[in-house]
Amino acid sequence: MSPTHTGVTAAPADLDPCGREEHPDCAIRDVLDRIGDKWSVLVVVELAGGPRRFRELQRAIDGISQRMLTLTVRRLERDGLVLRTVYPTVPAQVDYRLTETGASLTHLVRALADWSLTHRSAIAEARHRYDRTHPDHGIR
């Protein structure tokens, strides 16, 4: 894979345990892998306010690179959560918006964000206590 590779990849079928009876939780893990990563969550949060162009998304999401944003919106599009629309202008204009399925996720993401804000002090204190009593664990 080259440094500029932005294709969406999937696990080869022979390596993918999903669909086998001994792995009934694959559907849950598969979805959580997508919506649980920080960039996907931040893109969904930003698109909850309405359609955005690529550069608007990039400016709104602090720290995301062009490559990571490209990968993220492509993966969300592949999963049916984001719709990419190309307008026939010169130069071409592209915007991204949540699909109906993607929009149905926004209340859950907002609830998680609210929970995070409410509990961030308690979590920071718990981490501080843990780090003081377990200095050799190296978790950061």
What would you note in describing this structure?
This protein is mainly alpha-helical and about 140 residues long. It is built from 6 helices and 3 strands. Strands 1-3-2 form a 3-stranded antiparallel sheet. A hairpin with a 5-residue loop joins strand 2 and strand 3 (about 95-100). About 10% of the residues are buried.
Descriptors:
140 residues, mainly alpha, three-stranded antiparallel β-sheet, 3 strands, 51% helix
Provide the gyration radius in Å: 19 Å
| Shape field | elongated
* Portion in beta strands: 5-15%
Biggest pleated sheet:
3 strands, antiparallel
Q: State the end-to-end distance.
A: 29 Å
Structural class determined from secondary elements: mainly alpha
Oligomer: single chain
Order of helices and strands: HHEHHEEHH
User: Can you tell me the residue ranges where pLDDT is under 50 for at least 5 consecutive residues?
Assistant: none
- Summed over residues and divided by their number, the pLDDT gives a mean of 85
Give the neighbour order of strands across the main sheet: 1-3-2
Number of helices: 6
Total number of strands: 3
Proportion of residues in helical segments: 40-55%
Question: Quick summary of this structure?
Answer:
The protein is mainly α and 140 residues long.
